Amino acid sequence: MKIVIPCYDEAERFPTASFVSYLSSHSEVGFILVNDGSRDRTLEVLTGLADRFPQQVEILDLQPNRGKAEAVRQGLSLALAGDSAIVGFWDADLATPLDAIDQFAGLLRERPDIDWVIGARVKLLGRHVARHASRHYLGRLFATCASLTLGIAIYDTQCGAKLFRTSPELADSLRHPFSSRWVFDVELIGRFLRRLAARGVAAPESRIYEYPLNVWVDVKGSKVGAFDFFKAILEMAGIWFRLRSEPR
After folding, report:
1. Is the pLDDT of residue 223 over 70?
2. Which of 6, 53, 131, 180 has its CB 3.0 to 4.6 Å from that of 57, i.e. a possible disulfide?
3. How far apart are alpha carbons 177 and 200 in whole angstroms?
4. pLDDT by residue (tens digit) across 77-91?
């Protein structure tokens, strides 16, 4: 299993200790740490972790900064070039703890009828999902727009915790750069669903499983601001148009 961690200016908040603990007890899991043109000591911090776990940690250094969408796309493409049956990406701040990887991967192994497991930040009793109220309500509006864009009911496209079963459809969905900088997750979902539909898969959305997270904490230092929400809505309109105008 290979998981991509996109990193941009994470030197001061990269949770090295959490990665060390997880890697030490999960020899079957590898990480591709993508340094996306960071301006601080991020590459040095990532290289330190790779030096400690050379069999499990790989560095992809992108220069100059390409943005999270391209960092994730290139990282996943590299992961797919190997022999991993499961690949994915995870936010570097570990708002979703690394132990959720085990839960996601377990679902993919137990459920041959699903190809993706993606995190959903749902505030339920007995779960710890700590999210600022403003982000929560903007997120609900965004999710409504995403559902309309994709033509499916989906709760949370933007959670930065996703695992995928390797497949030709996933590889093909990553073949070209994303047109969107802020909402590439929606674009990736749309591409994947279209490729499944072209293959004749009935109800392709059933191949994606949303997993309500047990723990998610809004970590300080996010690079995304409130104004970016409006940029994302504009990008989503472009995705809606492209999904309906591209040939299948």
Report:
1. no
2. 53
3. 25
4. 999 999 999 999 999
- Where on the phi/psi map is residue 128: left (φ > 0), alpha (ψ -120 to 50), or beta? beta
pLDDT digits (tens, 9 = 90+) for 118-166: 999 998 889 999 877 667 667 777 888 889 889 999 999 999 999 999 9
Number of neighbouring beta carbons within 10 Å of residue 120? 18
* Cβ neighbours of 183 (radius 10 Å): 27
248 by Cβ neighbours in 10 Å (0-12 / 13-18 / 19+) ranks as exposed
Place of tokens 């969408």: 69
Q: How far apart are CA 231 and CA 229, in angstroms?
A: 5
Q: CA-based angle 89:47:181, to the nearest 5?
A: 35
Rounded Cα distance between 204 and 69, Å, is: 23
135 Cβ partners below 8 Å, 6+ apart? Answer: 218
Alpha helix (H) residue ranges in 81-183: 100-110, 133-150, 168-173
Are 150 and 88 in contact by the 8 Å Cβ rule? The answer is no
Average pLDDT, the chain: 91
- Chain centre distance of CA 221: 18
* Residues in a beta bridge with 88: 3, 163
Instruction: Report residue 196 CA to chain centroid gap.
Output: 20
